[in-house]
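hey so u asked for the seq, here:
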Amino acid sequence: MESISRAAKAAILVSALGYFVDIYDLVLIGIVKFPSLRTLGVPDDSMKEISASLLNYQMFGMLLGGIFWGVLGDKKGRLSVLFGSIFLYSVANLANAFVDRLGSTEDGLVAYQWLRLIAGIGLAGELGAGITLVSELMPKEKRGYGTMIVAGFGILGAVAATLIGELTSWQTAYIIGGVMGLMLLIMRIGVYESGMYQQTAETGVRRGDFFSLFTSADRFMRYLRSILIGVPLWFAVGILIYFSREFGQALGATKEINAAYAFGFMYAGLSAGDFLTGYLSQRLGNRRKVVLVCQLINVGLLAVYLLSRNFTSTYFYTLCVVMGIANGYWAVFVTMAAEQFGTNLRATVATTVPNFVRGSVPVLTTAFLYLDQKIFAPGLINSAQGMLPAAAIVGGASLLLGIWATLTIPETHGRDLNFHE
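ran it, structure tokens below
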């Protein structure tokens, strides 16, 4: 069994720190949305819709950025993405701290939306490039451990965002995220390019051809299944946690749920889950079984979440941790996607797949809000409870599709990645 090279260790360290900052900036909008929108003068009765629009702008940016950075990673190298993406989202987050100085609520909101779009484009490149680089530098028998560390440690950035978002002003929280990102650029100087990528570049094989994913039925179905496996995770984050305060009201929580705490507890569970599922997938030699078990558990947890009534905040935050652990297959999911495809398309896939999953959030939230406000709420005495059947339908559909994709995608544990599409 091969030992882990110095280049691989450096890639793991820098990718883990980069993903830490990435996740910090990614979830910060959910933690500071209320204080930042209040500063801009947004009334409370418009908070749900406007905060959803900010999340959708960010996630749409990640959808666009996923394609751009993924193709760039295969055409120009994994390191070009690691440098460029973090610079873009760091600058956007620094600028985000000053949207309240534009004079009017409307101007501030427009700037906020566009900066979340730009930040989303930047945030899209970090994880896919890091996972691709680590996967190609690690021995195939130990690959899962490397990606496990990257994702498991990186997700703790959400916990840091929760603490900083609660202890500082929302403006300071954005500035801290931007500064951390720019500091990371200095560390990346010592990271080396993947040897597999360099060999592919020398062969003249066509690289980064995004549209080739749709010209073959086999490639397209592998790609589609890779995306669908991850969608349930972002249903949990983008709906159940992002709207946790509103769900608490609809479910009769005895104390108002703090969305920042919900994010912090959820992501603490996600970090533990990533380490656990990464370890189990290595020990069992099977990634699909681990992901399938997680998804089946999440079917039960969705029912528990929506059927709970008159609970304490302690109960809810404990449930957030448990849901985080059960949804903590992100590292395994992204690794599976990267392992499905050859070196000439690997960065494209590993970067676009997680961002298409994140990009599904606007679709999920639009369907959720439509079912809530147009279908169920008008027929209920307590209109807030329209959220419950809406979440059951959207969450149930995403879980069913995710389970189907997991059952039918090829197993990739231990696969030699030195091949082309």
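The chain is about 75% helix and 0% strand. The mean pLDDT is 87.
lmk if thats what u needed
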